[in-house]
Amino acid sequence: MNQKNTKILVIISLVLLVLAGTYLWYVSLYRPLLDQVEKKTAEHRQLLASLETAKRQAAKRVSLQQEYDDLQKQWQVVETLLPRERNMSDFIKQLHRIKGKVDATIERVSPLKARSVDFYMENAYEIEMLTTYHGLGGFLSHVANLPIIVDVTSLDMTGLPQQQEEEEEERDIVGPSVRSRLVLTTYSLRENVDLEEKSVQ
Description:
The protein is built from four helices and five strands. It is an alpha+beta fold. It has two domains: about 1-80; about 90-190, Ribosomal protein S6/Translation elongation factor EF1B (Alpha-Beta Plaits). Strands 1, 2, 3, 4 and 5 form a five-stranded antiparallel β-sheet that branches.
């Protein structure tokens, strides 16, 4: 074997050695590192997506919390306007306080049968009173300003006989000039949706 062939063999051996080393480096070091980089990149993308989702949910939560707080305030107002139970004595006391402020005489207050509607109860009262037209307007105005919801229905008015009005005018007394019969309805929350209608005795 001559010297030239020896050099070629050495060069070929070195090339093969470099290729083998490169392959081993690629297989044992570079490829695992590349796999790790790809894995970490995928995890990073996933974390970014989760972060964006969390940000959206956080913003939505703030919005929902604000909406919840607003609904809570509205519910507190509703609870004020719709008591949890029918309180006849308190309502009748309020009516008598009102009639003391206007020219009116309440002759009768009759609680009627409570009626169940959806989530609330309708509590009606039939009232008969003597008053002037102005006094009746004042009475209804005060009723409208009560801290609870009150509806006025079935308003019937009957004028008093002329003779009675003339007698009152001669005595310089501004007395009743109309007899009124009306129904006032208050509302209260139902404790149970399946609550049966009850009659108030």
